[in-house]
What we know:
Elements (H helix, E strand, L loop, with lengths): L2 H19 L4 H8 L5 H6 L7 H11 L3 H19 L1 H4 L4 H14 L2 E6 L10 H15 L5 H11 L9 E7 L1 H4 L5 H14 L4 E5 L12 E5 L2 E5 L4 E4 L2 H15 L3 E2 H18 L1
Parallel strand pairs: 1-2, 2-3
Antiparallel strand pairs: 1-4, 3-7, 4-5, 5-6
Amino acid sequence: MTEINERRLALGDELRLLCESAHVSGKQLAEKLGWHPSKMSRIWSAKQAVSDRDLIAIARGLALPEGKLEELRAELRAIRLDEARWNRQLRGGHSPVQEAVAVSEQQAATISSFALTLVPGLAHTADYARWVFRSLSALHDSPPDTEAAVRRRMERQHILYDESKQIELLTTEHPFRYPVAPAAVMLAQIDRLLALQGIVRFGIIPAGRPLPAAVAHSFVVRDETVAVELVHTEVVTSDPGDGALYRKYLDALWAQADEGDDARALLSEWAREFRRRG
């Protein structure tokens, strides 16, 4: 049994003991909260992951003190941080991660991506994605499942044409000034971005444009969930305060971005540079 599973079991045990102390069965609490009758027993046995919202509901159902709720939430955050480390997520390669992201995207009505040093993943060409996955596999010493990961990433892009979704892709000059792929690959990638104009909202923050605050990392907002990509881990939060902060930050970043004809002019300029290099 892994350390993570042991910690989830320990958290489940603590929730079970709290129910016993309140003289409430798991079935009774589940019914009180409007859940499936077996949900609490599955949480106790770590067969079902408990969410932050679940903990809040359980605390209210058991009338737990605020301090106890915060203690439980802190432990869940610590477990999630360990689970989110790339060395754990990438044990099976990048393909399973792409599949999990695809599920999140299919369930979301709005997707807003800010990519600091790469072209946003939903806009990758297959060749550009290969260079990205190869570099990341080398960095994390993860299984080199490049072709499978590329296929999954390309499959994710079907949602770009789903008119029920609102998709925004924002980047900076970095992917073009510090490219991860050769000139020929970058030229095809620029063509792809030009083709997406009018299909999704796309913007570029040019060099020298004043930023609302120091940009430290890439992130994606899917409905109420924020996923922050760091070198060693991914931080995911559904806290309303966090979501409001990132949406406010995104709005400020978009205010500094070039879109439409201005974005096309930048892409065309970089395409000319890559042709000269090639």
